[in-house]
Amino acid sequence: MVRGPRRRGVTRQDVRAEIRAIGRMKSGPERSLVDDYLERATVLGRSHGLGPVTEREIDPRSLKDKASETEALIAELSPGALVFALDETGKSMTSMAISKVMETARDDGVRDAVFLIGGADGHARHLLPPGARLLAFGAATFPHKLVRAMVAEQIYRAVSLIAGTPYHREG
Fold it and tell me: N or C: which end of the chain has fewer CB within 10 A?
């Protein structure tokens, strides 16, 4: 089974992808979307060195401020993890660019790709790990439940691009 190019001296392992978010989602259309995209990405990603794709919800009730929320989000990050922090002032990236970053990380032997969704006040940026990419989905403000669904879909889209499926169309 071919899983993409290998770089010399690198033993490639599957890249686990995880969405970490402050808050819990109750059942509803957004919850269904998130679950659907995470499952689809996990199934498709298996044969392409990506997955599982999971979600970690962090209960905000014991967190007192933006700093404690950020600390909870980055707790137990593996060294060298690829980190995307969703932030309204972040860089807008195309789906193709997100896919390429994930593919390169996989080929370079990165073990984890983590997408962080902070609380209502965002992230304490000074606590984010070095190299964390600030990512924005445009200039508009979106509800956190919708952002979580959008992140799950972008992970699935990235996996689809890497797998070469017709899900994504350019132009």
Answer: C
Cβ proximity of 22 and 63 under 8 Å: yes
Distance CA 40, CA 160 (A): 9
Quote the pTM value.
0.90
Cα–Cα dist 156/135, whole Å? 17
Domain boundaries, the chain: 15-163
Under-50 pLDDT residues of the chain = 1-11
Q: Kindly tell me the burial class for residue 102, based on how many C-beta atoms sit within 10 Å of its own C-beta (0-12, 13-18, 19 or more).
A: buried
* CATH superfamily of domain region 15-163: SPOUT methyltransferase, trefoil knot domain (3.40.1280.10)
Q: Which two tokens stand for residue 112?
A: 């984890």
